[in-house]
Amino acid sequence: QVQLVESGGGLVQPGGSLRLSCAASSGSIFSIYAMGWYRQAPGKQRELVASLTYGGFTNYADSVKGRFTISRDNAKNTVYLQMNSLKPEDTAVYYCNTVPWRTEFWGQGTQVTVSS
Q1: Residues 28-70: pLDDT tens digits?
Q2: Residue 20 is inside which H or E element, if any?
Q3: Is 38 exposed, middle or buried (0-12, 13-18, 19+ CB in 10 A)?
């Protein structure tokens, strides 16, 4: 069973940057599924913010387009989310999972807080 572990969250001021990492216990998941970053803010539904197919095609939610970049390092079995120009509304717990998501791949997520 492949496990996904998110890291890289923290507290950042508005306008700042963070890079999130999602380490997979096996890189085979990348050749089977598209991967995505999801987030869930307090009182809101979990939403997909960025996705990356095996072939390298990316897609972003309108709210993060132009600010976030998803990428993958196959040698490290890791998917990244580079987040720039962060806004308070980006505050949420961020998770990686396949697209569409699969229950068995949800991890603990990593908290991102954007506040001055």
Answers
A1: 888 889 999 999 999 999 999 999 998 999 999 999 999 999 9
A2: strand 18-24
A3: buried
How many other C-beta atoms can be found within 10 angstroms of the C-beta atom of residue 49?
Answer: 23
Which residues fall within 8 angstroms of residue 11, CB to CB, at 6 or more apart? 113, 115
> How many CB atoms sit inside 10 A of residue 80's CB?
20
Tokens of 108: 């603990």
Q: Report which residue type is found at 54.
A: Y
H or E segment to which residue 68 belongs: strand 68-73
- DSSP letter at 85 equals S
As a residue count, the chain comes to: 116
Backbone angles phi, psi at 42, to 5 degrees: -55, 130
